[in-house]
Specification:
Layout (H helix, E strand, L loop, with lengths): L18 H14 L4 H6 L3 H15 L7 H14 L3 H15 L4 H8 L7 H16 L5 H9 L4 H23 L21
Helix pairs in contact: 3-9, 4-5, 4-6, 4-7, 4-9, 5-6, 7-8, 7-9
């Protein structure tokens, strides 16, 4: 559909990847219907792709704690602050699906401070964005605010670690000019229910 390159770096042949990575990418493409471009772009360094996927899954798929929608909301807000088109578009699609809300990803991406958020979500994103942009200034008052919003210490770690991990991901995606798959733009955009 697009004449634009997926990445400014070479793309690997997925068939030449180690079997474990082929299997993981196949599971993702079977579920989504396509291979996310980030994997195509990172596949020329299989060891790095494996480490990236392992840490991603440890943060984003672990049971308990933050909901999957909350995790994606952190990614969208911090990626927007880092001007990462790939992560805002890709994780915005996942956020719309996991939150079952076709509006929330766009609101968070454009200006999370004005988005329709709960007080818990607002406290979470305030902390996540501070970690993304001013981690050296995070202090006890920030943890106290999260505690007051109902977060456990384990969940506080998750918020900070997700923000930090995607800070790295944002920089790789921007450095390599990784282009979002066009399929991401339409995912989770079902019509709003009719008003009664």
């Amino acid at each position: 559909m697009s004449d634009h390159p997926i990445s400014s770096f070479p793309l690997a042949d997925l068939a030449g990847l180690p079997a474990d990575l082929q299997g993981r990418i196949s599971l993702i493409s079977d579920k989504s219907g396509f291979v996310p471009n980030v994997f195509l772009a990172m596949a020329h360094r299989p060891e790095e792709l494996r480490a990236f996927m392992d840490y991603h899954d440890a943060l984003m798929e672990r049971p308990g704690g933050l909901s999957k929608a909350e995790r994606e909301m952190i990614v969208v807000a911090t990626s927007a602050e880092n001007s990462c088109q790939y992560c805002v578009i890709a994780h915005g699609a996942i956020l719309r699906i996991r939150a079952r809300n076709p509006l929330i990803a766009d609101q968070v991406a454009v200006n999370w401070r004005k988005a329709d958020l709960t007080p818990r979500e607002r406290a979470m994103l305030t902390y996540a964005v501070k970690v993304a942009l001013q981690a050296e200034e995070v202090g006890p008052e920030d943890h106290a605010a999260l505690h007051a919003a109902g977060f456990t210490q384990d969940e506080m770690w998750d918020i900070g670690a997700i923000s930090a991990f995607f800070g790295m991901s944002n920089r790789i995606a921007n450095m390599a000019a990784i282009r979002p798959n066009e399929a991401f733009y339409l995912m989770g955009r079902s019509p709003l229910p009719a008003k009664a």
